[in-house]
């Protein structure tokens, strides 16, 4: 049995270690806007471990208690894996799992964002981390869409086959689309389950 002091040190280390990479969080303002990702009955809390069968289908998206909601705005959300094929050796980073554009706040709920009339999207591919690759940070980022109407997202992979989703450069994609740094985000951890 581990002495409890050792055990809590391990816990603390893993909490510090498991975070959204800094390069993506520079524009976050966690006090005014938060992205809420919900898989079925599972509302994702930052860094929680989810089982692969919970994340098989795409989640719903909402904005948390946000003081800067604008029903006229449109938003973009991407889901990436910066730990592909593993966090120790992320040679396939970022793996692009999902893109939604033209997200807007539903007037009936004020905070639930949806893309019923999306003009562009990149299909959801559920996490499938390879055996022995450890926990992956499946990361969601929320961007302001530069234009409300007629916005066509550029710089997506040519098709949504798994092999085309590797090496997605978020910085280059932001430049091509004129995007400001992500405003909010969240992530969960998942790993190979056998
Ligand atoms: C905001 O939240 C993200 C995700 O939990 C975290 O990585 C980041 O450090 C937070 N930023 C601030 C300024 O608290
Ligand atoms: C958002 O709205 C959709 C469609 O009505 C619903 O299925 C989903 O549960 C809602 N999500 C949240 C987080 O309220
Ligand atoms: C959906 O988008 C199309 C193309 O942008 C637009 O013409 C149409 O009015 C939209 N429909 C709704 C219900 O918002
Ligand atoms: C990603 O794109 C940025 C901006 O275009 C560039 O500076 C950087 O070198 C690229 N990173 C990789 C790994 O290609």
Automatic annotation (TrEMBL):
<feature type="signal peptide">
    <location>
        <begin position="1"/>
        <end position="18"/>
    </location>
</feature>
<dbReference type="InterPro" id="IPR008914">
    <property type="entry name" value="PEBP"/>
</dbReference>
<protein>
    <submittedName>
        <fullName>Phosphatidylethanolamine-binding protein</fullName>
    </submittedName>
</protein>
<dbReference type="InterPro" id="IPR001858">
    <property type="entry name" value="Phosphatidylethanolamine-bd_CS"/>
</dbReference>
<dbReference type="Pfam" id="PF01161">
    <property type="entry name" value="PBP"/>
</dbReference>
<dbReference type="InterPro" id="IPR036610">
    <property type="entry name" value="PEBP-like_sf"/>
</dbReference>
<keyword id="KW-0732">Signal</keyword>
<dbReference type="InterPro" id="IPR035810">
    <property type="entry name" value="PEBP_euk"/>
</dbReference>
<comment type="similarity">
    <text>Belongs to the phosphatidylethanolamine-binding protein family.</text>
</comment>
């Amino acid at each position: 049995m581990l002495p409890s002091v050792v055990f809590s040190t391990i816990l603390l280390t893993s909490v510090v270690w498991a975070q959204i990479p800094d390069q993506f969080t520079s524009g976050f303002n966690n006090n005014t806007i938060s992205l809420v990702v919900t898989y079925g009955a599972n509302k994702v809390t930052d860094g929680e471990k989810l089982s692969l069968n919970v994340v098989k289908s795409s989640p719903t998206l909402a904005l948390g208690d946000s003081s800067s909601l604008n029903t006229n705005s449109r938003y973009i959300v991407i889901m990436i894996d910066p730990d592909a094929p593993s966090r120790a050796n992320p040679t396939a980073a970022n793996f692009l799992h999902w893109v939604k554009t033209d997200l807007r706040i539903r007037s009936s709920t004020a905070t639930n964002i949806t893309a019923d009339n999306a003009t562009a999207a990149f299909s959801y591919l559920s996490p499938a981390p390879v055996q022995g690759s450890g926990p992956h940070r499946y990361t969601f980022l929320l961007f302001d869409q530069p234009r409300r109407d007629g916005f066509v997202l550029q710089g997506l992979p040519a098709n949504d086959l798994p092999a085309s989703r590797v090496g997605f450069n978020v910085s280059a994609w932001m430049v091509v689309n004129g995007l400001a740094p992500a405003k909010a985000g969240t992530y969960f951890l998942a790993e190979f389950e056998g």
